[in-house]
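Quarterly update from the structural biology core.
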Amino acid sequence: MSQASEYRCIGCMEETVMREFDVSHLSRTCPVCGEFDRFVNTVVVERFNALAADPPAHLHWEQLDRLRKWLIAERLSRKDYSIDDIEMTVAEDGTPDDSGADAKA
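Predicted structure, tokenized:
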């Protein structure tokens, strides 16, 4: 039997569930906030929180929307990417453009 993994509701960040499988996230209705939303693997949540506490300047973290932040945290915590592999394309006005976060080829 595999080791259980913990997942946290990204809507309220209060409810957690344990599952006998290990994926980046799962979707379900949260009994606390009532939203049908993602429950994110706590490994990803921890990476997200670490990035928010000390964001690398080249990511323009404060300008990213929440989904892009979660995608970056997921890539760094669950795939073989380092922080240097993540690039942000920035528009002339200094905001991230619609292409979002990309790993270097």
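The chain has one domain: 5-95.
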